[in-house]
Amino acid sequence: MTEHDSHPPGGSNPGSVSLGCGTLILIAIIVAMFSGSSRVSSLESKVSRMRNTISSMDRELSQLNRKIDRLIELVEKK
Hints:
Layout: H1 21-77
């Protein structure tokens, strides 16, 4: 038996696995789903922090508006 005869046809090595295109696409989709979950979680966390910041800014803006209204009343009384 020659070295050329020791390998199966198709050029693959003994013990190797041949995957079809559909299988590779399926594996890629599964990997993308699981690798993307950490990014989604990270985005959800960032959005939550942004909402808290916006709420805080909204409260501060309301306080400033009330102070401006009081100042306007004081100026108009003079």
